[in-house]
Design goal:
This protein is an alpha/beta fold. It has two domains: 124 residues, D-Maltodextrin-Binding Protein, domain 2, CATH 3.40.190.10; 118 residues, D-Maltodextrin-Binding Protein, domain 2 (3-Layer(aba) Sandwich), CATH 3.40.190.10. The chain has eleven helices and twelve strands. The strands form two sheets. Strands 1, 2, 3, 4, 6, 7, 8, 9, 11 and 12 form a ten-stranded mixed β-sheet that branches. Helix 6 links the parallel strand 6 and strand 7. It is globular, with a radius of gyration of 24 Å. The N and C termini lie far apart (61 Å).
C-alpha cells in the first residue's frame, strides 16, 4: 500500500511538472513587440487594435505601402505584412524561390472613394467618365458637366495597394502627364484635393473627411455605407500576411491575428476604423 501511494505521488508530481512546464513555454514574456509593415490604409486599424490589445504587447507599425510590407516580410524584416491587395504573381515567384510559405488572412473589406474639392459642382460621375478622368482621356471638368478648368488628378504611388486595385478596375494613369500628381498616402491625397479646387483623387472610405466631397459613382452614394458594399464596384479586400513557419511557432503573432479575426474587440476595431468585418459579408 505504501509503495502504491509513493508511485501515485510520483506520478502526480510528474504530471504537475509537465503541466507547469507546458504553460511556461506558452506564456508570453512580460514585454513583447510585434512589427507590422505595409499598407497605409490598414495602419490606422492596427493602431486602434493595439490600444485595446494586451497591455504588455507593443505593436510597432510602419506604413509605407503594401509592396514595401510584403518585401519586408519576405526578407524577414517584420512579423506581419499588412496589404490592401493580394500578393502579385511576381511576388509569389520570389517567395517560392526563397522556399517561404506565407499564410494569408482576410481581415476586412474596404471601398475606395473618388473625391473632389467641396466647391466642385460635380456630384456624380458614371464609371466610364471616371475611367476617362483617371486615364487622361478626359482632361477638363467641362467634359463631364463642370467648369472649363483643367483637371488635376491625384493618384497613389506605385508601391501602394490602393494604386494597384484602382488601376485594375479603372485603368492606369498616363505617363509623363503634368496633370497627374502622385501622392504617398491616403492623407496626402486628401490634403492635395482639399487645397486644389480642380483636383480629383481617391482614398479609402476610412479616411474620408469633411475637407473633401465624395463623388457618387453611377448614382451610388458611398456615405450610405451599410448598403453600398454589394452594389459598389470600387471595393477590395484587406489582408495580413505572415510567414507560415513563424506563425505556427510564435504565440505572439498567432494571438494577435486571432484577436483581430475572432474577438469582439477585433471586430469593433475593424468597424470603428471604417471597414467591413469579414463576418458581415459571409
Amino acid at each position: 500500500m505504501l509503495l502504491k501511494r509513493s508511485l501515485l505521488f510520483l506520478l502526480g508530481m510528474c504530471i504537475g511538472s509537465a503541466f507547469f512546464c507546458f504553460h511556461c513555454t506558452e506564456r508570453e514574456p512580460d514585454h513583447v513587440t510585434i512589427t507590422v509593415k505595409g499598407s497605409t490604409t490598414i495602419a490606422p486599424l492596427i493602431r486602434r487594435a493595439a490600444k485595446i490589445y494586451k497591455p504588455h504587447v507593443k505593436i510597432d507599425i510602419s506604413n509605407t505601402g503594401s509592396t514595401d510590407g510584403i518585401d519586408a516580410l519576405i526578407n524577414g524584416q517584420c512579423d506581419i505584412a499588412a496589404s490592401s491587395r493580394e500578393i502579385s504573381p511576381t511576388e509569389a515567384t520570389e517567395i517560392e524561390k526563397k522556399g517561404i510559405k506565407l499564410k494569408q488572412f482576410l481581415i476586412a473589406f474596404d471601398i475606395i472613394v473618388s473625391i473632389v474639392h467641396p466647391g466642385n459642382p460635380i456630384d456624380n460621375l458614371d464609371l466610364d467618365q471616371l475611367r476617362g478622368v483617371f486615364t487622361g482621356a478626359i482632361s477638363k471638368w467641362s467634359e463631364v458637366g463642370g467648369n472649363d478648368n483643367p483637371i488635376k488628378v491625384a493618384v497613389r504611388e506605385a508601391h501602394s495597394g490602393t494604386f494597384g486595385v484602382w488601376n485594375r478596375i479603372i485603368g492606369s494613369p498616363p505617363a509623363n502627364n503634368s496633370g497627374f500628381v502622385a501622392q504617398p498616402s491616403n492623407s496626402s491625397i486628401l490634403a492635395y484635393v482639399a487645397e486644389h479646387p480642380n483636383a480629383v483623387g481617391y482614398v479609402s472610405y476610412a479616411f474620408l473627411n469633411s475637407d473633401v466631397k465624395a463623388l457618387k459613382i453611377n448614382g451610388i452614394d458611398v456615405t450610405e455605407k451599410k448598403s453600398v458594399l454589394g452594389r459598389y464596384t470600387l471595393k477590395r479586400s484587406l489582408y495580413l500576411y505572415v510567414n507560415a513557419e513563424i506563425f505556427y511557432s510564435s504565440q505572439k503573432i498567432k494571438s494577435f491575428v486571432i484577436f483581430l479575426l475572432m474577438t469582439p474587440g477585433g471586430e469593433s476595431s475593424i468597424r470603428d476604423s471604417g471597414f467591413y468585418p469579414v463576418s458581415l459579408v459571409r
